[in-house]
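Narrative summary of target 7.
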Amino acid sequence: MKTYEQKVISFQGNGIEYQADTCLPLVDAFERKKVKFKALARHTYPGDRLDQNTLGLNSIGYWDANTPQDWGLDWHRNEGIEFHYLESGTMPYGQENTQTELKPGDLTITRPWEIHKVGNPNVGIGKFYWVIIDLGVRRPHQEWEWPEWITLTPTDLHRLTTALRKNEKQIWKTNANFKDCFSRINKAIQTDQNGSNASSIRLLVNYLLILILELIDNEEIQLNETLTDSSRSVRLFLEELENNLQKDWSVEEMAKSAGVGLTRFTYHCKQITNLTPMKYLNIRRLEMAKRLLTNEPNTNITEIAYSCGFTSSQYFATLFKKFEKCTPNEYKSKIQA
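Modeled conformation, tokenized:
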């Protein structure tokens, strides 16, 4: 089985970069014969290669675990919309700020770049499917562009897109038609030889979308406009900023990395944090510095200042005293006392 191509899908732009997950724990489990696994994929996703007839479909496959597992897929993001379906067994699952356990017949939907995980920390015993469709989204607030082989009418596709983008429902209870659809997907990927089942796979993905639209039509869902505006991109940037505090950020560079204009970025940052962007950044850096002063007491103040993104130890000390009412050395002495 070929497992990887070199092209990596990620957010475009400077600063923080989010890359699509590569599912390495799954690959390792398969190679150790812990789990049955079959997928068709492109880019860095594992599996046999998809051909040009299904461009936009980045991964479609399943795993089947019939013994206790020692691995999981920790918090990660995908560039496309992802549908998970649990056919049998149980599956620990997390999405955004919630964690739960999936039951047979549960369908989950994650929007582009929405953080999620499978396993807590290990996956469960069960048969688990997924379909990932690239919608051309490199920022969460961008418009979705479905592959050209999606055959829903413009009206139906618009209804589906609106419902998927503007509601926060994560787990959907499905009917027997979904199990039939994924069983047919199973057969299509099992018997595919170098793209021989591309037509069937395209039809099955369209069938899945029609089933999801029918499911949505039968539910009373609440639409949330904030899920599609630029505040979502700013919130995502701020959540990940902790991993990039050492970068020499300006407000302009933060706005560019979030993919929104400077004025809009500043507005959303103030709405989300009640702080200006630079004040929020400095507070995050000071919190990191306090952790280092606590956990690495032998590290000198200058090294801590630079590792947290401050341009000088003097500025760091001044800012630290302003917020903590003591110098970094005094703080270190207090925690060591």
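The longest strand covers residues 57-65.
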